[in-house]
TrEMBL record, chains A, B:
It holds the Pfam family Dak2. GO terms for biological process: glycerol catabolic process. It comes from Pseudolysinimonas yzui. This is Dihydroxyacetone kinase subunit L. The keyword Kinase applies. Keywords: Kinase, Transferase. One of its GO terms (cellular component) is cytosol. PROSITE patterns: DHAL.
From TrEMBL, chains C, D:
It is an enzyme of class 2 (transferase). GO terms for molecular function: glycerone kinase activity; phosphoenolpyruvate-glycerone phosphotransferase activity. Pathway: Polyol metabolism; glycerol degradation. Its EC number is 2.7.1.121. This is phosphoenolpyruvate--glycerone phosphotransferase. It catalyses: dihydroxyacetone + phosphoenolpyruvate = dihydroxyacetone phosphate + pyruvate.
Amino acid sequence: MNGTIGLDSLVTWLDAFRTAVTEQRAYLTELDSAIGDADHGANMARGMAAVMEKLETSTPSTADELFKSVGMTLVTSVGGASGPLYGTFFLRMGMTAGAVAEFDGAALAAALRAGLDGIVARGKAEAGDKTMFDALAPALDAFDAALAGGTPIPAAAGVAADAAEAGRDATEPLVARKGRASYLGERSAGHLDPGSASSALLMRTLADVLGSS
Amino acid sequence: MNGTIGLDSLVTWLDAFRTAVTEQRAYLTELDSAIGDADHGANMARGMAAVMEKLETSTPSTADELFKSVGMTLVTSVGGASGPLYGTFFLRMGMTAGAVAEFDGAALAAALRAGLDGIVARGKAEAGDKTMFDALAPALDAFDAALAGGTPIPAAAGVAADAAEAGRDATEPLVARKGRASYLGERSAGHLDPGSASSALLMRTLADVLGSS
Amino acid sequence: MKKLINAPEAVLADALAGVAAAHSDLRVDFANRIIYRATPKADGKVALISGGGSGHEPLHGGFVGTGMLDAACAGEVFTSPTPDQMQEATKVVDRGAGVLHIVKNYTGDVMNFEMAGELAAAESGVEVATIVTNDDVAVQDSTWTAGRRGVGVTVLLEKIVGAAAEEGRDLKAVLALAEKVNGSGRSMGMALTSCTVPAAGKPTFDLPDDMMEIGVGIHGEPGRHRVPLAGAHEIAAQLVEPILADLDFTSGPSIVMLNGMGGSPLIELYLMYGEVAKLLEKAGVKVARTLVGNYITSLDMAGCSVTVLKADDEILKLWDAPVVTGGLRWGA
Amino acid sequence: MKKLINAPEAVLADALAGVAAAHSDLRVDFANRIIYRATPKADGKVALISGGGSGHEPLHGGFVGTGMLDAACAGEVFTSPTPDQMQEATKVVDRGAGVLHIVKNYTGDVMNFEMAGELAAAESGVEVATIVTNDDVAVQDSTWTAGRRGVGVTVLLEKIVGAAAEEGRDLKAVLALAEKVNGSGRSMGMALTSCTVPAAGKPTFDLPDDMMEIGVGIHGEPGRHRVPLAGAHEIAAQLVEPILADLDFTSGPSIVMLNGMGGSPLIELYLMYGEVAKLLEKAGVKVARTLVGNYITSLDMAGCSVTVLKADDEILKLWDAPVVTGGLRWGA
Ligand SMILES: Nc1ncnc2c1ncn2[C@@H]1O[C@H](COP(=O)(O)OP(=O)(O)O)[C@@H](O)[C@H]1O
Ligand SMILES: Nc1ncnc2c1ncn2[C@@H]1O[C@H](COP(=O)(O)OP(=O)(O)O)[C@@H](O)[C@H]1O
Ligand SMILES: [Mg+2]
Ligand SMILES: [Mg+2]
Ligand SMILES: [Mg+2]
Ligand SMILES: [Mg+2]
């Protein structure tokens, strides 16, 4: 792959994410059973199935159309906390991307960053609250740093995915301060946050798709 | 023991029956779980506890008073099918016994027979319906026959208890036609009838008490 | 056994204390374990009492109040009350016009009510009439056996006949109506799980994860058949078909109850009602009134039953009449 | 998993079909999964909508009707509905006087309703006010966390504020009342067992036979503490004490709800209410109105919650006002 990422790669990414959350559905629900309400796997699988179904009937020609469609579909098909959060993430990615048909590294990084900012605007999560933020924030920091250091996009995405997984694992000892897990107080410690696990899948599938294309 | 049975022996019998149904409470309930509603042990234990409590506060001086008190206490403390049935059994025993302070064999046999007739009058059970009748009827027949053959009362009571237990065991293959177990149709076969089991205890405790006094 | 109780022996007394605390329009006689209306009905009206083992709530205590029962006698869990309870209730509720005893057809209930009727008539001269409900099509009917169980129709009957008594009909008319309602209704139940009787401490029967009981009553007793677990649509068919095979419901309007056994959540009961409604429509049964919820239960058993009652203008009018009880309330 | 369902994915759609079949005074929008009153309220009156994940029935769909909600949006089981549902409901129920959104405080519910409010205001210009209920004392309150969950008070609020809207109060007054009610109520819940989410197929958590969860919400989530199983009296104390410690209820009358989680039979709920009533009396709380039953549930979870609401003459009058819904009905 060269320095740009086309719409088809982005769709492939979304499809890979769909496959990942569908395959990991029971695992995500298991994590949500321990400190939540046992629906995160079902929520993500339902949402990404709806996204891919939507993309089959309408093929957007620009990144903003694509991500706006993904975001709206998630918002209107998922519900719960993850629906508005992932929905806002993609809606903001689209707004930032603009009417382009391909990304360079900087543009992708900016779009992802805008997505994360959207999650924070919606959910007010901070570092260490034990949410998807704790996987996404270090991932995007690592992505930015790698690109700034001249690492090619595929490798930078791999670094970002590693950081997301490290961030996910680091949620284990945390006491949740946001979302449903916060009701458990101290009992939330000792479990991975389900949203950080789905976010790690989001970053890993991005790395996989960029790396293999 | 000689040829007569005093009130104290009868009270000892009732106390022994109380002890038996209390100790066998779980077993009787287990039998009732299989083909009924899982309360026969509780019902009999509650009823006989009430009976002995009543007898502690008022000591009847004749057999009719004694059995009338036992019958009314069972009627008003047990409920279910077994309450009216065992209650009627003792009420009729009392009516037949009359204002006596002791029984000979024939009088005891007549009283028991009247009790059984009371059960039939109340519940319309026939032989083979898979009820307490199937333990009591052969027991009283055997008692009558033994007495008629000159067997002393204690031994005759032992023969009756044996017959009650055989009658109880013979309920196992039967398809119930009376009581709750009849709702199971063919599925009631293969289980002992709980009421026949408590009736077998009634006859066995009688034999024990008469034999040892 | 996991239950919100203090001790198995204390369940009934403690639950009655809760009823007394929760309902100022009811009066509880704790010694006799009877739930009365706090304000008795007017002189000259027929009174209705019912009673049965506990564990079927809201039946019967939850149906005491204006437009339904005058009193309910509570037995131990799954054990019919004793004759002295019914005798006492009969004496207390009689307003000089006689008392209808509503009895579910179980050997114990029938015998205890029978003794109560004998005692009441002999001692206080109160005129007693008795209706024995027997609507459960899971049980093959026969004069040689205990006959069909009384289940869901009892709820509908207490409402409809209660309204007629409130109107001032005499005992003969009230009894005739009760017989008409009982004869016009059929029920069928099923269970996904057993229930646990507090005094027994463990489930009455074991039911593997992939099996269900068809044809259960309301006492946690095993059903008529044990069959593989099926979807709601198939379960509905197994409940509706024997009902429709037993009585023709296509000639007029019907009242339908989708009743929960106590442990099934309301979302599942509505789901089941949706399946039942489809089957009834297909069979040409016109549903005029519906109840969905827990009305005659079997402790914590998961499962449901269906009751269909042939109605007519009279029955619908009585059904719609005001009722103010813990378990059913409308029109006032 | 033993449930009266056809398939986990179809639970919500099938249950809505049952609601539509059972209640002719409701209208179901299947595409948007919204339950409306069949007859909308009069022009110029404030409308109330609520919504949330399914599995809490009768909440919220069972509270749609005269005197309570105008519409309820149903999400997947335990998953809040999506903004487009609430936006659609808002547009449909608005009678020109604005719409109150009743939201239980959960991150998902709050965010989805927030997006709905933004969309409704932007697109159709309907004035929307929002009350977020947060009465669960099991959760330590803090601006740094998600805050307290909205539980039992939601039921009482929908009734009381629904009556005020029916009277014709304007949106500002309706919102102020909603805030007053929410601020005056506290709840605490417990579970004997987990529930099973259909899509998950197995219990959300394992609870040994000799343990119970104190401080559970209504999503089968584990509670705040796991403690040894205790008797009803002790359980009542563990529910009532944190409520009374959080707010003074002795200055006037209270409305008390003893709510079942879905899997506990009514006899146990009454028994629990008896224990709760004793503790409240001892603490000087005067109970003016009572609800005992399943009102805000957690599928098939066994357990209960207690809600205490400080009332006054206004609130009691609104409480007693007529209500005609599947889940609460009186006065009409
Ligand atoms: N305020 C928040 N900000 C960011 N992420 C959050 C927030 N609240 C919850 N989350 C994420 O959402 C995940 C739960 O999603 P999901 O189970 O689908 O929704 P719900 O909690 O409504 O059932 C959590 O694991 C957490 O990562
Ligand atoms: N009609 C009847 N005649 C004689 N005995 C009967 C009859 N019906 C039931 N029984 C006896 O009663 C027993 C059940 O008693 P119990 O469990 O205490 O009452 P219930 O069936 O009301 O729960 C049965 O096992 C049977 O022996
Ligand atoms: Mg969740
Ligand atoms: Mg029994
Ligand atoms: Mg019984
Ligand atoms: Mg959820």
